Amino acid sequence: MLFNSYEFIFLFLPIVLIGYYLLVPERGRLIFLTLVSYVFYGWWDYRFCSLMFLTTVIDYVAGLKIYQARTPRGKRAWLLVSIVSGLLLLGFFKYYELLARSTNEVATWFRGAPVQLLPILHLILPIGISFYTFHSMSYTIDVYRGIVKPARRFSDFTCFVALFTQLVAGPIIRYHDLADQLVFRTHTWDKAARGITFFVMGLVKKVILADGVAPIVARVFDMPSPGFVESWLGVVSYAMQIYFDFSGYSDMAVGLGYLFGFQIPQNFNSPYKAASITDFWRRWHISLSTWLRDYLYISLGGNRLGNFRTYLNLFITMLLGGLWHGANWTFVIWGGYHGALLAIERAAGKRSLVSSLPLPLQRAVTFVLVLIGWVLFRCSTLDQAGALFSGMLGLHGAGVSVWPFLALAPWCGLILVLALAVTWSLPNTWEINWRPGFWLTIALAVLFLICLAVILVNSSSPFLYFQF
Fold first, then answer.
1. Is residue 176 annotated as a catalytic residue, yes or no?
2. Are the CB atoms for 249 and 169 separated by under 8 Å?
3. Mean of the pLDDT values across residues 344-355?
4. Measured between alpha carbons, how far is 223 from 217 in angstroms, rounded to an integer?
5. Which of 44, 371, 404, 408 is such that its CA lies 20 to 30 A from the CA of 24?
6. For the chain, how are helix, strand and coil distributed in percent, rounded to 5?
7. Tell me, what's the pLDDT at 402?
8. What are the contacts of 330-335 at 24+ separation with CB within 8 A?
9. Catalytic residue among 135, 176, 187, 325
10. Mean pLDDT of 251-260
């Protein structure tokens, strides 16, 4: 079920709100939210509800055992149970096909004839498995480190893992972010107003801006040999699409959280205003970058083992971060690319060429570096990425065949200009001091109706991060 669909907006959400506030007693609200979250998840494919429940049970038991263990060895053993089980489930569903294809290709290359050492199973990737696995895994690690105590009740932990507001595409929530709120949270009109505002603004980002530039992206990235203008137009459009698509989902998740009394952390902070790649990762997908820092980079040694290990740890962390996004070598190379840039910036420090430039140029250089990475992120094959890179270098000519398309669909170009203007000239959703009032209500109502009209005409489209 999509946040930007009629069944969610006019069926699921109203029923859940009515049940939560009017029909269910306060002591049963958490269980109610858990049940409707499983309905929300099962709407896509009910079979995978059992997989999420299995992960929940394993990590809940592991958390209790870690807390009760009397020896460091016992604590480590149960932590290992949690981590290995989570990674095995995630790895099987998400990475088995990549392993099988790569193994068969290598065997075929050595033998000189087709070989199939591992069968291709054509597995369906459970939506949200990357997110809820990280949610659940961070809990047992934090219990092991003594950051949090085990959940008081199984229902508390089950709700934390399954909560539909951020279940499918984040933000990646830590248990300590919601632990107190699972026990007690306030419900006020101010929170409700803020929640509605975030939800509508997220809907606008997705339906108007992200989906508005999507036709340009699809057309350019499907070209076998895009030219210079086409390539840059397509990559810039994709940068806008993925930003407004994912930040739109995050805003909607935050808004839904407010409607049920939860305060969910910020996940984006104007990433394209970043003055360096390091700054970019402080602003982009904040919940993932901090998760990788706290649970992977620091575990590898962080910056405590000398300069070379610091650079290597940065590279490995981002390499695995790229792999987390998907079972494709383009994601791995994208992660390695960002890891290398972070290591170079760490080595250069204040002597970096970019840091000596005026702030607008720092941002421009950083944006171009990010665009280069987005090519790898968007392309499904290295050959496709190579064609885009060649086009960006002008090796396929000027590339003006996209102009007739823009002439037939001028709104796409206009929305791209609007998206760029919003990105660099306006504050982000979190920087605006939303105060309930007449004109804000009118503006939100108009924007909401426009979004509904667009959904009616174009039908709802999945969020890009659903596939990760």
1. no
2. yes
3. 75
4. 10
5. 44
6. 75, 0, 25
7. 66
8. 330/376, 330/377, 330/379, 330/380, 330/381, 330/382, 330/385, 331/376, 331/377, 333/376, 333/382, 334/373, 334/376, 334/377
9. 325
10. 95
